[in-house]
Amino acid sequence: MTPTGNSPKILVTGGAGFIGSHTVVSLVEAGFEPVIIDDFSNSERSALAGLRAILGRDVTCYAVDCNDAAAMDDIFQKETPLGVIHFAAYKAVGESVAKPLKYYRNNLDPLLLLLELMPKHNVKNLVFSSSCTVYGQPEELPVTEETPRLPAQSPYGNTKSIGEDILRDAVRAQIPVKVMALRYFNPIGAHPSAQIGELPLGVPANLVPFITQTAAGIRSSLTVYGDDYNTPDGTCIRDYIDVMDLADAHVQALRKLNEDTTEASYDVINIGTGRGETVLSVIKTFEEATDVKVNYVIGPRRPGDVEQVYADVSKANNVLGWTARRSLAESLRDAWQWQQKISL
Ligand code: WQD
């Protein structure tokens, strides 16, 4: 897709990462011109080649720490974007417990900088990457946006809650930004071309990359963390959202913000499928979708895991006109295709 000279530019911080790179594809397909800002501390430059293979053209990328005020100011000056999608953040729950200051610094300072630079450059639209982790273990399910946030179980989760509070308070103080905080549930899958996907560094903490690495023989077996929960098969329930559906939700949020004529606004929206799946059902669906067996054992519960969380997505449907379209089987098949590609 060749950009027209006047395609509105969108700064995508963390745009070489898992969700960021898939959102870059959706932005181009929707007629926007993404501008990636990524310091590659938690992503790989190979994502840029993957994007070129999908899009048939290069995407502007600044290899910059989005906490670098001078560099970010120059980028705003040069690119004059219509909006910003802020993905850049560390997201390893376990690491955040061991290194909290690294997480507070990296996940919050760049957000504060954006809130200074956007008004300076008259950029009003901001989509913020938040997480269902702010809900902890909800009393009632499915969770709506009115479900109370619970104290974070990790510094990572706390940076998402604090980030939402910073944005809410900035808007209350009439800082001229319009903000949508998207609370992701569990992003999975990969672009169907297998040119981009999830690149977990080291041993994957998340379920689906561990499944695909086990299926590929990289891991000898998957440990299912507990089967004594109060769920149909005893394993935890999550809402697994396809990364391309998640990417499309960002484009819809941007469009909605751009239509909004108010000076300052703040809103939060759940982005999930609205369906809960147990760990064992994900494994079974993977095996059926790929015809590949997954070796697994049942192990002890993982500390910090909530028993079940899945989204009420009626607000995303009503406000964004968005709904998840891809099935769990499609997402797992795409994840497997991607795993086979990077295991070559
Ligand atoms: C899912 C389920 C595990 C690995 C985390 C973050 C959250 C968000 C998504 C960023 C759980 C089980 C997992 C394994 C297993 N990230 N599991 N064996 O913990 O729901 O959410 O990633 O925003 O903030 O907290 O995702 O994929 O780690 O676990 O049994 O080897 O799979 O117990 O029930 P989680 P997950």
In the CATH scheme, the class of the domain at 9-190 and 241-271 and 312-325 would be: Alpha Beta
Return the structural class.
alpha/beta
- Which quaternary structure do these chains form? single chain
- Please tally the β strands and state the result: 13
What sort of overall outline do the alpha carbons produce when their principal axes are compared?
Answer: globular
N-to-C span = 28 Å
- Secondary-structure element order, N to C: EHEHEHEHHEHEEHEEEHEEHEHH
What does this entry look like structurally?
By secondary structure, the chain is α/β, with parallel strands linked by helices. It has a domain at 9-190 and 241-271 and 312-325: NAD(P)-binding Rossmann-like Domain (Rossmann fold, 3-Layer(aba) Sandwich). Helices cover 40% and strands 16% of the residues. It has eleven helices and 13 strands. The protein has helices spanning 18-29, 46-55, 69-79, 93-98, 100-120, 155-172, 207-215, 243-259, 279-290, 314-320, 328-342, and strands at residues 9-13, 33-37, 61-62, 83-86, 125-131, 178-184, 186-188, 222-225, 237-238, 240-242, 265-271, 277-278, 296-299. It has a seven-stranded parallel sheet, sandwiched between helices. β1 (9-13), α1 (18-29) and β2 form a beta-alpha-beta unit. α1 (18-29) runs parallel beside α2 (46-55), α1 (18-29) crosses α8 and α7 crosses α11 (328-342). The longest helix is centred in the N-terminal third of the chain and has 21 residues, at 100-120. It is globular, with a radius of gyration of 19 Å. The model has no long low-confidence stretch (mean pLDDT 96). The protein binds UDP-4-deoxy-4-formamido-beta-L-arabinopyranose (WQD). The site of UDP-4-deoxy-4-formamido-beta-L-arabinopyranose (WQD) has 19 residues, from α7 and β8. InterPro entries: NAD(P)-bd_dom, NAD(P)-bd_dom_sf, UDP_G4E. It comes from Spirosoma telluris. Pathway: Carbohydrate metabolism; galactose metabolism. It is an enzyme of class 5 (isomerase). It catalyses: UDP-alpha-D-glucose = UDP-alpha-D-galactose.
